[in-house]
Amino acid sequence: MKNNRRELIKQRHRRIRRKVQGTAQRPRLAVFRSHQHIYAQVIDDDKQHTIVAASTVDPNLRQTLNATATCEASAAVGNLVAQRALEQGIKQVVFDRGGNIYHGRVRSLADAAREAGLEF
Q1: Could you list the residue ranges that cross the membrane (predicted)?
Q2: Where are the alpha helices (DSSP H) in 1-120?
Q3: Can you tell me the distance from the alpha carbon of 45 to that of 27, in angstroms, rounded to the nearest whole number?
Q4: What would the pLDDT profile of 35-72 be if each residue is shown by its tens digit?
Q5: Contact 75, 112 (CB under 8 A)
Q6: Domains in the chain and their CATH numbers?
Q7: What is d(CA 49, CA 80) in angstroms, rounded to the nearest whole number?
Q8: Among 35, 26, 4, residue whose Cα is nearest residue 96
Q9: For the segment 67-99, what is each residue's pLDDT rounded down to a tens digit?
Q10: Rounded to two decimals, what is the model's pTM?
């Protein structure tokens, strides 16, 4: 039986999560992409704690965006999550693309986070 798109993404994410784990020294930058929004969290998997988060639903960011499902909106989220992480003293992260292909909105979020100062 052929799997649908969401099930294939979940399978890829489980496969990625076997290898990618965030620690206190190098937390995980997790990305979740829905049809209309994109969410990014910096997570310490040892403590099971979200350190910082940003998304297109964020009220501060929502006012400046024309549309939420674009590469420009994803870049704004990447920039915001990187700024918040740097304020917390986090410079290095492990990137978790969440089972999505490294292309389009996921790639623009990652590139913006790198440009803002995060290392991965």
Answers
A1: none
A2: 5-17, 59-62, 71-87, 105-116
A3: 7
A4: 999 999 999 999 999 999 999 999 989 999 999 999 99
A5: yes
A6: 5-116 (3.30.420.100)
A7: 19
A8: 26
A9: 999 999 999 999 999 999 999 999 999 999 999
A10: 0.91
